[in-house]
Structure to design on (257 residues):
């Protein structure tokens, strides 16, 4: 299926590895041009070089920076549009912030968790909407989690922020629908990739216990992969999903009850 993403510009926050990289790969395969960001200069540079070698230097632009910071986000969007043209799609994919277990979460951890997981998503979306609204077209995608769909015992800031992100997407979808802009969310399940939490669990001291847990809790009896999130993301970002907005799509092997 042709997703009609050829030469469309997609902005992806958190694209140097894992789910963000999976989304980048999927969009490039559909002919999109990418603006990718991440905090780590070296990791992002290596990712940009790898993608550019395989898909073309003129198809990948990168800027390292903190996607929690509004000025940095605005600079990244400005740089992306100067290098590649108008941004069609934007993906808010910013990672986990450390949080202690239980309810006694200190103020710094709470504020940090909300900033990392929720505020960053709003600020990326706000920057995208400022540019998309006058053009009356575009698509925004949040990367949430199944931890935002139900209480799974994850750290308190994480599940709470992801639940709020799901609601944020619905509100923004209502606000921007009249301008022809769609806002959706993907809620990944247990996605395994090099350097990620699930890789550490699958190879650590409790690997067998985690393997049993996956087979018990996930109907498909396995971990998910970044490319499987990427495929769903490319579709939701594409014109082929033209009547889908305000939706939260679990990509979790059937784990969500």
């Amino acid at each position: 299926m042709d997703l009609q993403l050829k030469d469309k510009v997609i902005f992806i926050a958190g694209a140097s590895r894992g789910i963000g990289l999976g989304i980048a790969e999927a969009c490039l395969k559909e002919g999109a041009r990418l603006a990718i960001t991440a905090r780590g200069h070296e990791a992002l540079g290596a990712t940009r070089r790898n993608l550019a070698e395989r898909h073309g230097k003129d198809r990948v632009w990168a800027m390292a920076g903190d996607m929690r910071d509004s000025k940095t986000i605005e600079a990244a969007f400005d740089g992306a549009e100067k290098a590649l043209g108008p941004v069609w799609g934007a993906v808010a994919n910013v990672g986990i912030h450390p949080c202690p277990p239980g309810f006694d979460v200190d103020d710094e951890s709470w504020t940090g968790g909300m900033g990392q997981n929720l505020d960053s998503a709003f600020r990326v979306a706000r920057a995208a909407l400022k540019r998309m609204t006058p053009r009356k077209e575009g698509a925004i995608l949040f990367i949430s989690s199944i931890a935002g769909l139900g209480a799974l015992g994850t750290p308190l800031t994480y599940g709470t922020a992801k639940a709020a992100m799901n609601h944020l997407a619905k509100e923004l979808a209502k606000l921007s629908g009249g301008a022809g802009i769609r806002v959706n969310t993907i809620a990944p399940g247990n996605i395994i990739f090099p350097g990620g939490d699930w890789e550490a669990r699958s190879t650590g001291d409790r690997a067998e216990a985690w393997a049993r847990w996956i087979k018990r809790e996930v109907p498909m009896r396995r971990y998910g992969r970044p490319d499987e999130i990427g495929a769903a993301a490319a579709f939701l970002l594409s014109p082929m999903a033209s009547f889908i907005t305000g939706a939260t799509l679990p990509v979790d092997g059937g784990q969500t009850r």
Notes: The two ends are 30 Å apart (CA to CA).
